[in-house]
Amino acid sequence: MGIREENEFWSKTFEGEDFSGEKLSSKEFENCTFIGCNFFETIFSRCKFVDCEFSKCNLSLAKMEYSKFSDVIFRDSKALGIDWSKVAWPRPIFSAPIQFYDCLVSDSSFYGLSLPDLLMESCVARGVDFRTGDFSNANFQHTDFGRSLFADTNLQGADFSNATDFDIDIFSNDLKKAKFDRFEAIRLLGCLDIELV
């Protein structure tokens, strides 16, 4: 029996399966691993993922309708165009329940979310909406933030070491104790309407 027939899964590995365009409703996955699976435009409706890992998967344009995530890792995967604000996040959140390593997360939305300690390392996050969110103490190392939006965003203690192409207004975002590379930090002066020579 597979995902389509059963509703609860423990310590199971799914490899190379294709669920693109399907709707998965009220499924629970605990300590499961997804390797090379295709979830393109899949609708996850009220699903629950606990201690799971997605590796080399395609989740682009997936819809996370009131699904729950706890200690979930995305590794070397495509997660393009996902609206993460539709997830049923726990309250309160003390540390981010999702982590991204070497992923493509461009054109996604984290608008208004409180995800302190979010880990998004060595990713391509172009055109991502981080406005009005709390990403304090996040790990954004080695990530490309071209065209991404930051406004009224809490970035206290966030680590942007080796991150590139970010456009962050120092007046409309909280950057207290955030970490930037010395040369990339020049980008923060862009909002000052000054000429660097």
Automatic annotation (TrEMBL):
**What SUPFAM superfamilies does its record include?**
Pentapeptide repeat-like
Q: What top-level branch of life does the organism fall under? A: Bacteria
Query: What Pfam families does the record tag this protein with?
Result: Pentapeptide (PF00805), Pentapeptide_4 (PF13599)
The record's InterPro entries line, in alphabetical order, gives: 5peptide_repeat (IPR001646), PA_immunity-related (IPR052949)
User: What is the official name of this protein in its record?
Assistant: Pentapeptide repeat-containing protein
Q: Which Gene3D superfamilies match?
A: E3 ubiquitin-protein ligase SopA
